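Dear support,

Our group has been running a series of protein-ligand predictions, and this particular one with 2-acetamido-2-deoxy-beta-D-glucopyranose is the one our PI (initials K.S.) wants archived with full inputs and outputs. We had some confusion internally about which version of the output was final, so please treat the block below as the authoritative record. The input we submitted was:
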Amino acid sequence: MELKACVLFLLLLLSTKPVKTCDFPAVFNFGDSNSDTGGLAAAFGQVPPPNGETFFHRSAGRYSDGRLLIDFMVQSLGLPYLSAFLDALGSNFTHGANFATGGSTIRPPNRTRHQSGLSPISLNVQSYQFNDFHVRTRQVQGIFKELVPKPEAFTRGLYTFDIGQNDLTGGLFLNLTVDQVKASVPDILGQFKTVVKDVYDKGGRFFWIHNTGPIGCLPYVLEYLQINEGQMDKNGCANPINELAQFFNRKLKDLVNQLREELPEALITYVDIYKARYSLISQAHKHGFEYPLRACCGYGGKYNYNIHVGCGGKVNDNGKEIIVGSCKDPSVMIIWDGIHYTEAANKWVFSHIVNGSYSDPSIPLLLACQRKRD
Ligand SMILES: *[C@@H]1O[C@H](CO)[C@@H](O)[C@H](O)[C@H]1NC(C)=O
Ligand SMILES: *[C@@H]1O[C@H](CO)[C@@H](O)[C@H](O)[C@H]1NC(C)=O
Ligand SMILES: *[C@@H]1O[C@H](CO)[C@@H](O)[C@H](O)[C@H]1NC(C)=O
Ligand SMILES: *[C@@H]1O[C@H](CO)[C@@H](O)[C@H](O)[C@H]1NC(C)=O
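Confirmed final output from the archive:
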């Protein structure tokens, strides 16, 4: 696959017709904390420091010490970082909007955020918000032209999706078995499909869809589910949970193929984030990283992660109150807070997905508006 991508890239370079990059005027993102740039913070409380310390030097609404994949992506497209749709102050939506919030699922959760930790802003709600944004942008165009996208940005823009992880973990944390969660995947993806089709009906044509990562390697899953030794792979990740993620990803890929038939004018890039993240975790040392399964910002236990107190929280340590802070060198760590990734890990994954080598079809991000040339 890498070779194929390489050949394609060379063909594009050598092709007699000049290759025009897409010049996406905007990016509209849907997702969970993997791509939240301030949505949950605007609605449910600030993300505490030391989140943001490495790059923004302040808490910046992101669950990481720095930039997320979506930040590296828009940056490489020459666009500013995306404002969260929910952020009432300082937002500028000229080049897109971000509807993602930390803890979002595809299916609406049945329990409150307090009970489950899941965001009430599930994908269907993000879709309502997008539709409102789309309609109202036209209404306010004259007054706010320096703050909202031009109408053509909705048809020429890139629609990015990174969601599904919390549907899987949400089921597991309700004590459903892996097989029970697998059985819910068709319903989950059915609801995902509805939203993609709705964006298409509103004029969206270019889609960039991330699959779900190796959640069986994340401290919050490993700590909560208490996986027994026999079910770990050679890297210390939980096999049954990673198999669940891969099951979801296979079904997601099937769905993408279905959508390509049902939406003839859509160009959909499916990105294997699982494979990229897993290669980083399984070859951490080779790539200059340490302790691939340990949280940088956390407290206690085998993974430096405690389910009851997160990064930036307060903990009583022998009668002394301490703040759960960052590790010495986040730039050599992969996992940031037990759930999310460090800026360094995100940068590594970005640099490997941007040229299309983990994508189907294998075209670079800058060309994601073009059909693969045969
Ligand atoms: C894509 O980029 C990565 C990281 O720089 C590199 O290892 C890989 O060989 C590249 N693949 C292609 C097809 O250019
Ligand atoms: C919520 O409950 C309804 C009705 O029982 C069910 O159909 C749906 O699948 C549930 N959603 C989730 C996320 O479990
Ligand atoms: C919003 O961003 C665009 C592009 O970066 C810029 O041209 C515009 O002036 C900004 N609007 C305001 C009100 O600052
Ligand atoms: C899941 O099982 C654990 C251990 O038996 C229990 O403590 C927890 O309350 C259960 N969670 C739910 C949501 O039922």
